């Protein structure tokens, strides 16, 4: 489903060049749950952003379902992101002034869809993560684990084929982290979702299908 060939990412300023990624070759199969691990500054989030089409590589090619995406314009890449990819972040990125259900609806605003259909899908997504009793609450009224469940519901509301999760358990205690992991695993088993997750937690990573390790921007396994 996802293929990266000879990916390199170089950041340039007037006085310095920083090689964030080099010679990354990666294939992720449909329905696979992949972990990316490595020390701080090893390129994990950069790699996730490139897979998620939020950033472009300096060299190399990206393929999604066998289709090369490098030459696509920003508008087309945005459409692919909205329809095929869901994002989950460590700090949740919820809008505090919106209710839980309104937060979950956000990705659907950019689709041609009635308000009634948006609400139906949002409620369905919240039920999948066990928050159907918290739809009218606001983020400040929720625990960290509940906020992350809202973030997952928002990520899956558009039925994406791919979920990209950047340290989704990083702000949670071990018990809640395991609960979030189980929700992600259920997306793989029940819906066939492909998940690529950045994590620093070995106990979390060991429960996924495969681990890719980065060091100084390079794969080390």
CATH superfamily label of the domain at 2-94 and 160-219: P-loop containing nucleotide triphosphate hydrolases
Q: Work out the number of β strands.
A: 10
Low-confidence stretches: none
By oligomeric state, this entry counts as single chain
CATH class of the domain at 2-94 and 160-219: Alpha Beta
H and E string: EEEHEEHEHHHEHEHEE
Beta percentage is 25-35%
Biggest sheet details: 6 strands, mixed
Q: Which bin fits the share of residues in helices? A: 25-40%
N- and C-termini, Cα separation: 21 Å
Q: Structural class of the helix and strand makeup? A: alpha/beta
CATH topology-level name of the domain at 2-94 and 160-219: Rossmann fold
Cα-based radius of gyration, to the nearest Å = 17 Å
Number of helices: 7
Going across the biggest sheet, name each strand in turn. Answer: 6-7-8-3-9-10
Average pLDDT confidence is 93
Shape, per Cα inertia axes: globular
Q: What would CATH call the architecture of the domain at 2-94 and 160-219?
A: 3-Layer(aba) Sandwich
Could you explain how this protein is built, in words?
The chain is α/β, with parallel strands linked by helices and 221 residues long. 33% of the residues lie in helices and 27% in strands. It is globular. The two termini are 21 Å apart. 38% of the residues are buried. The model has no long low-confidence stretch (mean pLDDT 93).
């Amino acid at each position: 489903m996802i293929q990266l060939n000879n990916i390199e990412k170089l950041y340039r300023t007037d006085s310095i060049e920083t090689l964030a990624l080099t010679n990354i070759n990666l294939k992720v199969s449909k329905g696979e749950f992949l972990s990316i691990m490595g020390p701080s500054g090893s390129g994990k989030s950069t790699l996730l952003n490139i897979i998620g089409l939020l950033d472009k590589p300096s060299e190399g090619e990206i393929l999604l379902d066998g289709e090369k995406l490098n030459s696509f314009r920003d508008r087309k890449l945005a459409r692919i992101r909205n329809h095929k990819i869901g994002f989950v972040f460590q700090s949740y990125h919820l809008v505090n002034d919106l209710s839980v259900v309104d937060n979950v609806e956000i990705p659907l605003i950019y689709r041609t869809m009635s308000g009634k259909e948006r609400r139906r899908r949002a409620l369905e997504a919240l039920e999948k993560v066990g928050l159907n009793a918290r739809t009218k609450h606001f983020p400040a009224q929720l625990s960290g684990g509940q906020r992350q469940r809202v973030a997952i519901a928002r990520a899956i509301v558009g039925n994406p084929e791919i979920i990209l999760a950047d340290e989704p358990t990083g702000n949670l205690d071990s018990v809640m982290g395991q609960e979030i992991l189980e929700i992600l695993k259920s997306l793989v088993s029940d819906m066939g979702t492909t998940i690529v997750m950045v994590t620093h937690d070995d106990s979390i990573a060991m429960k996924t299908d495969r681990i890719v390790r980065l060091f100084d921007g390079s794969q080390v396994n």
